[in-house]
Amino acid sequence: MRHMLRIGRAAGRSAEGGRARSLALLAATAVVAVTLCSLAATAATWEGREQRGNARVPAFAEQGDRPAALWSRYWDGYQGRQFTVVVIAPLTEDAPLPPGVARWPGPGEVFLSPALADGPANEDFPRRYGTRVGTISAEGLASPGERLAYVRPTTAMLGTARMEKIVGYGGPGPAFGDLRVVGPRSSMLAVIGVLLGLPALGLAAAAARMGAAGRDRRDALLRTLGAGRTARACMDIGAAVRPVCAGAAVAALLTVPFLLTDIELPWIDYTLYAPDLRRAGGTLAVAVAASALGMLGLILLLRPAAVRQGTSTKPRAAGSGLLRLLALGSCPAFLVLALTSKSFGAQRSAAAYLFAVVGVWATLPWVIGWTASRLSGRASRSPHRSGDPARLIAARTTAARPGTVVRLVAAMVIAIGVVGQTQIITSLLFARSGDEEQLKSVQGRTMALVQTSATRLTDAFTGALPAGAHAVAVSAGDIRPDGSSGSRILQGPCDSLRALRLPCPAAGQEAHVPYGDLDQRLRVSGYQSFGPTPAIVRTGPVVAVNRSEGLQAVVFTDSDKPMDIPAVKRAAHLHLSVKALAEPVAEDGAKSFAVGYHSRWIPFLGTIGTVVLLTAMALASLSEFLRFSQTLAPLTVLTGRSRIFHTTAFWCLGAPLLGAGAVGAVAHVILVQPVTGGEGGATLSWNLVTAVLLSTALLAAAATVAGGATAARRARMWRPRAD
Amino acid sequence: MTEALLPLDIHALRYEVGGRRLFEGLGLAVRAGESVAVMGPSGSGKSTLLSVVLGLVRPDAGTVSVAGRNVARLRGRHLTEHRRKHIGMIFQFGELLPELTPVENVALPALLDGADRDRAYADGRKLLDELGVPAAGTATGDLSGGERQRVAVARALIGSPSLLLADEPTGALDAESRDHVAGTLFAVPASRRCGLLVVTHDPLVANRADRVMHLEQGALAGAR
Predict the structure, then answer these.
(1) Cα–Cα distance for residue pair B218/B21, rounded to 1 Å
(2) Which of B38, B111, B199 to mutate to test the interface with A (most CBs of A within 10 A)?
(3) Tens of pLDDT along A98-154?
(4) Quick count: other Cβ atoms within 10 Å of Cβ A156?
(5) Which tops the pLDDT comparison, A248 or A576?
(6) Global pTM value
């Protein structure tokens, strides 16, 4: 057996395209291993998050317990994403410390997570809640990148908010912090499985079958010579075992840094916690080993397909007849279903649309392949007339082997489908999670809604506001029996009312302003509470109208001068009440931008998956092109015309890719029509369409250059070898 | 083609590879209208001799004149241009593109050389007619082995070369096809006034040549 393995290894080295196949197997094993490791790391990360999250949940004091501390929490926002601020104060000398906090902060002192402590200077996190005296260590955080603060209020401010009595931590209550806003583990595993797993499988299959023709001939020969299944399997494994092991080693090396230190994933703003991954070290090692074994298994599994193929040189159709007919017939049906899915009702239409879109992307490559082979039959007559040898060869090859074109364009079309759909899903989630333009608008940062349990603005608060800031109290008016309000009451000093272009009625009098005449910022910030209701304007101090509900007020500057929002937040936290909320209009609380940020995982993983898929495609088509170009080598050596390799590479590789890119982009634009436009609808990104077309052109150029140059180089090396 | 210039004239050829001396003072002349077969055991350097004549392998010493020019001295563009004009080559396995029709395969070198396509196809058709192979209507891959090899002969002749080289041209054929192809091949020098150098293991094929040489210990010895 060892002998067969050694023969296989030697055969693998000397086989046609042996080096390219080795590289492909190495890359494929590494990608499969990294995908399996990502799944294991995700499971371990979620488990760690849950453990640490549960460990910091307060255990509330029951009747008869001796409370150790007062505890409460509220939320603050950073760029539209909410994070938890825990308010805490010890009642006893031996009060237990929250996880990750080294000592009890003194009154007015704060512990911040590293993400807040090292946050942008203009956000002023270290002074926003008091005086920062320490950093929450990783054991107290769900993930190293979590934003969290433990605040001990000053003695004066302690009574400004309701707080719970607790005896310790690790209670059964609901989790807080990042845990509340991160989706379930199963969704993440499913997303990784689809966006990384499927392309990795495609790459593995392409690498396993690369240069298969030579191996299949060898296999058939060995079978004739009486070699058994085991012996032939040993040879195949022998040829692949080195690159596969090297791929597994590369994946292991890539994984090691994640075990040693916390690493922030680019763009999606998430930091992986090394101890979580170290705990799953055994599983990660198994994942790497499994990928190597799985790769070898796949090579053996895909081997028999070659034996069935036979040695016929007759032109082949793109796939088996029935499958092709099914694909050709169902593609337009899927397209019609996708375009008409809106009429099925909300629940059914989403499912029908998704089903139809997947159907179109899966069957479109067959249609392109079929069209290409039909066209190339005709096209080969035209270069025959024109005398262009490259077009003649490409057209004849395509007509004889349409499967090559199908495989080439399939990966391209599916890649465009994945990228396009991830953009649409992301834009849908962002549309439902908040208005990105609003988040980034200057006007949205000139007004903040302040909510506090205090009934009036304190002088200390007003004094701490940025220069030029005004405040106007907002409350509900005309309360209806169902609890909704028929109007909103705006009350403030005359100059503040005028700053909002509101009338300034005499004391004891009211002015009515229709909804449409209100400052746009007032309309946005109050929409969630009051809807499109008119305003009753009163001149007076900024105080709560209904004292039991506390005070709501808008703090604002002129609409063209951005306000120092962190200063307003600081003033509210330090001088109004411990749990005062201050939310800029730009981050209007009706919408959570967190969903939008979390949806970034989809394009992040989708992009990686697409790159893997395109690599698989490039390897597969390059290997086919090289095999065919080998036939042309002797002729070009004699004629000295190696330019034909470049032109043939263009017609065989570049042109189909360009065509697939254009058809894919058009299909994407047509397919997104049912879900774009309207309130909460997705937005078609023309930038993305342009980027797809540009990338396709670049890829086509790269494939042409790589194919042409490699074939020409191999042709130059050609020598008569019959001796 | 000029009568005065020999299609092939090799003098004092010396070539060493991997410490092994393949050619030592080898000489050979092939006249227009003449066919020469070179035989020899495997590894004696028969195919390397063809590579030297093609200019793909550079000898350590000696001259290799093809149609009056020493290809051992020619470089780059001049070499490929001279090769294109004066040498035709037939390979053991034909090395044809199976998807193309026979006439397209034959016309391909001329098309690559930028020749007028009507002329290229007309010449291709004429050559295939002479050799008795259907010119179109079927893919080359669907032809029999003998027919494919005759297409390869036609392709080598499309540029009217001074020198025709053949590397085991019948090695992959059965006896009947071998006789047919060999008959076609050895009739070429007389009809087209070019030189033919055939490398073969097969004595039945070699014996059809005007002269048979044996490559032994780095030199050619005339068998007849």
Answers:
(1) 7
(2) B111
(3) 999 999 999 999 999 999 999 999 889 999 999 999 999 999 999 898 999 999 999
(4) 12
(5) A248
(6) 0.67
Q: Rounded distance, CA B71 to CA B54, Å? A: 8
Write phi, then psi, for A75 (nearest 5 degrees): -125, 155
Closest CA to A72 of A147, A143, A176: A176
Instruction: State residue A139's pLDDT score.
Output: 92
Write the ipTM: 0.71
Domain-by-domain residue ranges, chain B? 34-47+75-211
Residue type, A535: A
Q: Please check whether residue A579 is in contact with residue A453, taking contact to mean a CB–CB distance below 8 angstroms.
A: yes
E strand residue ranges, A195-337: 263-265, 270-272
pLDDT value at A276 more than 80: yes
Length of chain A: 723
Q: Is the pLDDT of residue A455 over 70?
A: yes
Chain A CB within 8 Å of residue B142 CB = yes
Write out residues 114-133 of B within 8 Å (CB-CB) of A: 116-117, 120
- Which of A639, A644, A651 best probes binding to B when mutated, by most B CB atoms within 10 angstroms? A639
- The conformation of residue A341, written as its DSSP 8-state character, comes to G
Q: Environment class of residue A501 by beta-carbon count within 10 Å: exposed (0-12), middle (13-18) or buried (19+)? A: exposed
The partner residues of A485 in beta bridges, in order of sequence, read A479
Closest in A384, A632, A640 to B104, CB measured: A384
CA A397 – CA A313 distance, rounded (Å): 12
Which residues between 154 and 213 in chain B have a beta carbon less than 8 angstroms from any beta carbon of chain A? 155, 167-168, 171, 199
Name the CATH superfamily for B34-47+75-211: P-loop containing nucleotide triphosphate hydrolases (3.40.50.300)
For A209-266, write each residue's pLDDT tens digit. Answer: 776 666 666 676 666 666 677 777 887 888 889 999 999 999 999 999 999 999 988 7
Query: In terms of pLDDT, which residue wins out, A603 or A449?
Result: A449
| Beta pairing, strands A581-584 & A447-452 | antiparallel
Find out whether A526 and A474 touch, Cβ atoms under 8 Å.
yes
pLDDT above 70: percentage of residues in chain B: 97
A478's torsion region: left (phi>0), alpha (psi -120 to 50) or beta? left
CA distance A385 to A33: 52
Report the C-alpha gap between A370 and A325 in whole angstroms: 10
